[in-house]
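Sample intake sheet
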Amino acid sequence: MLFPASCLARGLAIGLALLPLGTRGAETNWLDVESRIQYGYYTEDPRSLAKVMELLAPSDSESASKSYYAGLANYRLTQLMVSKDRSRAKETAEACVHSLDGALKINKDFADALALQSACLDVLAALDAWRTPFAASKSGKQIEKARHLAPRNPRVLLLDAVAVYDQPKGSAADTDRALNGFKKATAAFEAERQETEHAPGWGAAEAYVYLGRCYLDRGATLEARDALERALLIAPEFAEARRLMAKITTG
């Protein structure tokens, strides 16, 4: 598959993002931090994510952004570990929730943090049965508040749809709800990509991958391929998108 020149530029940006935090100035560039986290997730490299988390460890100078990205790094590591090391996944999910508590203590109306904490709580509920009632209840409250605060925020829409998709498969209505949720999320990401770049800004590639999964679940191969191609245009290094695409192309 050929990718446009914009992807090469994005690759250079990721390369810069792999430099130590603070290399290009006294103030942290959170988009660079985000790129490091996303690159580690896309390439399924737990060690690089662990290094980012070391740099985001608590210190005397805390901020909502720092705590948010510590939560995102832990969330990504949880996603990579959940099928390999459930004990470590539980630890990183708990760390995600704790980090986002810090972000929300500073900014209680931080919609991105509310939605991400909801996602981490959902994972924690699945990993730790005795905590399920509390985690599930808090997760629902956090995503509901995020939807109220930022109904068009693409990451809020994405994580809301992920929660529906990851539930035990239920009725056709639930399946349709997840599909429609990812359609809304991808549309919101396309609108956001027309704006000035800002942080947080992650999620477009993931939204297209989930949309592709929904289509594959329905046997809609052409639609799934289109969604996955869009994901790979945004993040050519996205290993999960490549695996799903290979599944389609090899039959």
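Comment: The chain has two domains: 44-149, 152-251. The CA atoms of residues 228 and 241 lie 6 Å apart.
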